[in-house]
Amino acid sequence: MFPGDAFLGEEGGGTIADAVWVVDPVDGTANFVRGIAQFCISIAYVRGGGIQAGVIYDPMADELFAARRGGGASLNGETIRVSGLDDMRLASIEAGWSTRRPLEEYVGMVDRLMRAGAVARRGGSGALALAWVAAGRTDGYCELHMNSWDALAGLILIEEAGGATNDFLAANGIGDGNAVLGCTPALADALSALTGVALARR
């Protein structure tokens, strides 16, 4: 259907081009194989150096999260927004863990979040966690390294739902991965300081 576009995925690799579909057929594989109902399919479209669209589907809950640049974000066709919470002591923040960064860095980040008063959680599907931030179910997601196929769809969902994010595509994030931060705007500066992940300035 789009013969001029490239494809990049977790399972099959691919190529990076000006227009590329970035796909993870199952994010949260460890949950999936253990029968834990927290996994999803993530698809993002990147063109001209920016994320243009993203879709995350949770098959267990039959929930389809979708966003288009400038078109807002939705869940099963209904508009969604980030939570709007402004008190870190009431915040629910998901902190993803990656083997690509030292364990001590992850533990230190979680320690700082909890000392700031937030509830730190980890569900095992970063893409779905980002979608939940967009839907206002949680207040933020952070991870010190994430692959593009797990991050991009969720980041545009958060942006189009009124949230704040980092510039994931900087420094070849699409190919090499990058740190991730997505959250409700009132917590953005505090979360950036606690995680060390710089926010995108728009």
Outline the fold blueprint.
Blueprint: E1 6-9, E2 13-14, E3 19-27, H1 29-33, E4 40-47, E5 50-58, E6 63-68, E7 72-75, E8 78-79, E9 92-96, H2 103-115, E10 119-121, H3 126-134, E11 140-146, H4 148-160, E12 164-165, H5 173-176, E13 178-183, H6 188-195
Parallel strand pairs: 1-3, 9-10, 9-11
Antiparallel strand pairs: 1-2, 3-4, 4-5, 5-6, 6-7, 7-8, 11-13, 12-13
Helix pairs in contact: 3-4
Total domain modules: 2
How many DSSP-defined strands?
A: 13
Outline the biggest β-sheet: 8 strands, mixed
Strand order of the largest sheet: 2-1-3-4-5-6-7-8
How large is the count of helical segments?
6
CATH topology value of the largest domain: D-Maltodextrin-Binding Protein, domain 2
